[in-house]
Amino acid sequence: MKTLKTRQTNIELLRILAMLMVIILHYLGKGGFLTAESLKQQPLYALLETLCIVAVNVYVLISGYFLIQSEFSLKKLLRLWAQILFYSLLIPPVLSLFGVISFSDKTIYDFLFYIFPVFMEHYWFATTYLFLYLLAPFLNKGIKACTKKQLQFFLLLFVLIFSVSKSILPVKLAFDEAGYDIFWFITLYLTAAYIRLHGITFLQTKAKSMGLYVLATLTSIVVIVVLYFIKQRFGIMGDRTTMTWNYNHILVYLASIGLFTFFLQLPNFSGTVAKVILVISSTTFGVYLLHEHIEVRYIWMKGTMGTVLLVYILGIIVDLIRQGIFSFVEKRIFKGGNARNEAL
Length: 344
Known about the structure:
The chain is mainly alpha-helical. The protein is built from 14 helices and no strands. It is globular and about 55 Å long.
């Protein structure tokens, strides 16, 4: 598998696709389209959810793939924190100005979510990612000190504990957070580092990588159907019916690797197409911070699936404005700087 340089357009294209998948997941989940009644009326929602559930894993794989060969940057950490604060603090006043929310209805707890978005887990992904970024220098030293077999052992151990165990046991484990935790992010980081340093022999072609993604996705659908019939017939395992929609399920993990390695092997774009890809990919974290703000996340998904594209386009525009503001400020603080997002 070929080695890529930072900011490769094939991976940036995957970043764009993954954010589209994230918005679709939020549209389906928070829009109430994944209830039993909704799925009976429109089973296509289940397929769409299964196809897109790899999105978060893919984002972390992208980060780990590049961070394993990068140095820790305090400036980048502060830039990420500032970007999170930008959206967390400014969205409520804008919504209040247009009469969408009223501050008179808010409690101190609500304001804490605005002011301390990382510590309050306003955005769970942003909080977990920042902790992963802080751990990255230590993870990198440990990973690079390992032989290939040692890294294989530790990776297998993490996958067995945090993925395989929850995927095969009929009950929910006490430590299982469905992939919304730092331990799962570390597992994905180890996976990306292994791919970057050693590659995966049996995924050396695009056909095999895409085949893994498709096979794991189709198997997930089968598992959902089987568990649904078990629930209907015997009245058991109802809480496990949609477990293949957990980020740390083994089938989602494998599908994520398949899609990630597929894009790794795509050719890089050049010229105008490359420039457009890089501009859009630089806004993806901002798109996430906009549509997942605590005051926004349950109000935008009304309407058709076309809302997803509208949210994405609006998010791109807003973050380009944010980048302009940050660039202006950074030039005066650091005497030069680029405010483009490098988080995910």
